[in-house]
Amino acid sequence: MYKSNVREMLFVFSCLKLTPIPAFIYFGFIVSLFSSCNGDIKIPSQTTKNENTTFVEIAPIIFKNCTPCHRQGESGPFELMTYRDAKKNANKIKFVTQTKYMPPWPADAEYSHFVGERALSQEEIELIKIWVENGAPEGDASNIPTAPVYYTGSFLRKPDTVIKFKNPVPIKGNGTDHFYVVKLPMQLPKDTFVSYFEFVPNQRKLAHHINGHLINYTAGNKKDIQHGLTYALDAFKDYKELYAQMNILNDDGTFPVLTPNTVYYLPGYTPPIYPAGVGGHKVNKTSAILLKNIHYGPSSIDVLDSSYINVFYGSKPKRPVFETQMGTFGISKIEPELILHPNKVETFHTQATMNNDISLLSVNPHMHLLGKSFWAFALQPSGDTIPLIKINKWDFKWQYYYTYQHPVILKAGSTIHVYGTFDNTDKNPFNPNHPPKIVTQGEGVKSMQTTEEMFQFIFSYLPYQKGDEKMDLSKKNN
Length: 478
Ligand code: HEC
Prior knowledge:
Number of domains: 3
CATH class of the largest domain: Mainly Beta
Order of helices and strands: HHHHHEEEEEEHEEEEEEEEEEEEEEE
Largest sheet: 5 strands, antiparallel
Bound molecules: heme C
Strand order of the largest sheet: 6-3-9-5-7
Strand content: 25-35%
């Protein structure tokens, strides 16, 4: 059942945003680009091939492009906050910058531009090489710029409040995927506007995705949100029973107001941050986040997961942000059907035509381990092509939510075309099957198994308003 009709989706999505949803079965998850936390570091614009390059010149490059992740509590496997750290890893740093493996930025920066783009210039790459080959000297320590100050516990900044898993979720080391439903009760001092939520995975290597809904309890409808199961295996059936056990319903047994898709996580994800008034949620004093669901990839040992959600307050949302997904679970059909034959590299296509003018804010390409490349563009009614995103080498680990510098305006009648190429051969180092076997989307939500495939293009947008093309999306709603 597919509909290539954004007007209908606008309607559907506005319903989702504004009314209680009795059927909790909703999917779609979203990824984001990270934003630079330390925008003010200067990089030498003119770099000479200087034999005397020292850490004085290298530090600003590392502080801008590496330490957002290579610091305590973040995803990078080692820290790069000091000269000692950098010196110790100098050869590796040279290697990963030469190969452009780091900093991770899968989108083709020659095709389209996004906020927080993280790519080193050729000069910077060269400078690092010279520095390493000269023995990675420190130089005059008093001239080394001070490392950025980060808040440990968030990729972004210090949150206004943190909601923790009430009980750690047990992940069995039996080598299979696990799906859980988790409830995080929220008791705020008062009704509050929240700009964004940041899910911080505790078992980073296992967290495959989360898709969380916001539940707002109307005053007087819920006496106690703390009781009930805080997590349960998602068995994909009889949610009514599960929600009763989790004590999610209103005291009179009716459903509370639910806003789907308010909290997301995928590997590499951080939430998109829009200017004040764009997006965000009103969160009632008594509320909860329902992670429905949280998907952990296979583990070989038993572990406990104690993830948490950082909550960032903001101003009153003036313009709600809508999301649509094309392809798997989306409004548009994949052609041909997503069946990946063993030992083949195959390309699939999906397209959707806009019925209204929209202002495209962010896009998120999504595939699993067999993904090879991804390409999306829009054809305007005038015949003009608007480049949206191109990923020449898909990497499952980096699934950003890419935000444009300025909204991309798509006029009614524009068609978004998306092409995804999948590599189901033995040459694909991430292929989970040796020998390769036939891979499909699976059935319904089970298609979220890591070893099954998805081909999805998720985009967030505003219904177009005059002047949107000038909106600066790099302005943060902080
Ligand atoms: C967005 C987060 C992020 C940024 C930015 C980033 N890294 Fe990484 N880095 C990672 C993660 C996560 C890994 C481990 C997973 C992997 O290898 O892909 C990693 C792996 C590495 C490795 C390989 C470690 C090994 O032994 O295999 C090196 C070296 C490295 N990073 C250096 C850098 C340098 C240098 C920069 C900046 C120019 C940088 N990284 C920027 C997150 C990041």
